[in-house]
Design brief:
The protein is an alpha+beta fold and about 260 residues long. The chain has helices at about 90, 105-115, 125-140, 155-165, 175-180, 185-195, 200-215, 220-230, 235-245, and strands at about 15-25, 30, 35-40, 45-50, 55-60, 60-65, 70-75, 80-85, 100-105, 145, 150. The chain is built from 9 helices and 11 strands. The strands form 2 sheets. It has a 6-stranded antiparallel β-sheet. A 5-stranded antiparallel β-sheet has the order 2-7-4-5-11, covered by helices on one side. A hairpin with a 2-residue loop joins strand 4 (about 45-50) and strand 5. Helix 2 crosses helix 3 (about 125-140), helix 5 (about 175-180) crosses helix 6 (about 185-195) and helix 8 crosses helix 9 (about 235-245). The longest helix has 18 residues, at about 200-215. The protein is globular and about 65 Å long.
């Protein structure tokens, strides 16, 4: 079904409900939750998903896995979506049920998602059920992409993290953060890892990658992206970007 609402279809006697929706530039879905797990795929544009635990950027041809009952908000930048809403018992066999994940989408899964939204809501034929079963197998096998920025719960550190995300800089020193929190450098690093599950340097790098993704997808030149993040040149930025994402910056740059 296209441009429908899951609230109208949630209680259908099917493990999977498929919906397609189009969102205008800048549209925001405020914080909400679903009884079912959701696989939210962006065929075009960019999506930003936020929860109390972190933020995720979802480039085109990727999807975000949202477990059942997770409060989340989504900001869309010109996105055509395909969503699967999956019964919790089924979802528990497929992916992480505690946190969101951004995943790659294979060409096969992409075609299955496009096909799924044209299925009748109460699909019954052997062909339609086989398509749905194959789609779930593909969802379970997709690799996770490192596009998550975990956020701390401690208010002072959360404030610093949110300010950094507005203007990320790859050389921003941990000592500046430690001073702002009246901690020694070593105490701050321990505290940061306890709060986010990542070292400060890894988190800082991840935040820069996610910021770079958003700029690249709008057509910003690679060298301009690199300099805006504090890199000396595009080459050093590209090396880091490929190491983190598995792809060169040009992969996400519109041709």
């Amino acid at each position: 079904m296209r441009n429908g609402k899951i609230d109208d279809l949630d209680r259908l006697d099917r493990e999977v409900v498929a919906l397609g929706n189009d969102y205008v530039q800048g549209f925001v879905l405020p914080q909400h939750q679903h009884r079912r797990a959701q696989l939210l795929y962006g065929a075009t544009g960019l999506m930003h998903v936020s929860t109390r635990d972190g933020e995720w950027v979802v480039p085109p041809q990727h999807a975000v896995w949202i477990p059942p009952e997770i409060l989340h908000a989504v900001r869309f930048a010109g996105v055509t979506t395909r969503s699967l809403y999956i019964e919790p018992a089924c979802a528990a066999r497929l992916r992480n049920m505690s946190r969101c994940e951004v995943m790659a989408v294979s060409p096969l899964l992409r075609q299955l998602l496009l096909e799924a939204v044209d299925l009748p809501p109460l699909y019954e034929s052997a062909r339609d059920r086989a398509l749905t079963d194959l789609m779930l197998l593909e969802v379970a096998s997709m690799p996770v992409r490192a596009f998550e920025i975990p956020l701390p719960q401690q208010p002072a550190l959360l404030t610093l993290c949110q300010a950094f995300l507005l203007a990320p800089a790859i050389h921003d020193p941990a000592e500046r953060w430690a001073k702002a929190m009246f901690m020694s450098g070593s105490s701050f690093r321990r505290h940061f890892r306890q709060q986010t599950g990542m070292s400060f340097s890894t988190w800082r790098q991840r935040a820069c990658v996610v910021s770079a993704l958003a700029m690249l997808l709008t057509g910003t030149p690679v060298n301009e992206v690199a300099l805006s993040l504090g890199y000396d040149n595009g080459s050093s930025f590209a090396t880091m970007f490929r190491r983190v994402t598995g792809q060169p910056p040009s992969f996400y740059h519109p041709s």
